[in-house]
Amino acid sequence: MTKWYSPKLKRELVSKLYFRAKAEGVAMTTLVNRIVQTGLDAEEVVESRRDRYSDLSGLPGTGDRSAEPVNQHSASG
Hints:
Blueprint: H1 11-24, H2 28-54
Helix pairs in contact: 1-2
């Protein structure tokens, strides 16, 4: 018999999952599988985009701008 790893979830997460699954009328396992799969799929999309555009890093105007300030809100409000 193969033994599978089963991670422990925080009690408050289990409670939220329970009530959400109950509200949706699905099993908790079904809900958790869907949530995890959605998260993993989104992560794959981000990684794919990062890989696709990583070869552009040597072009002018495509360098690392992480240190540049980002102004999302105007001073006037």
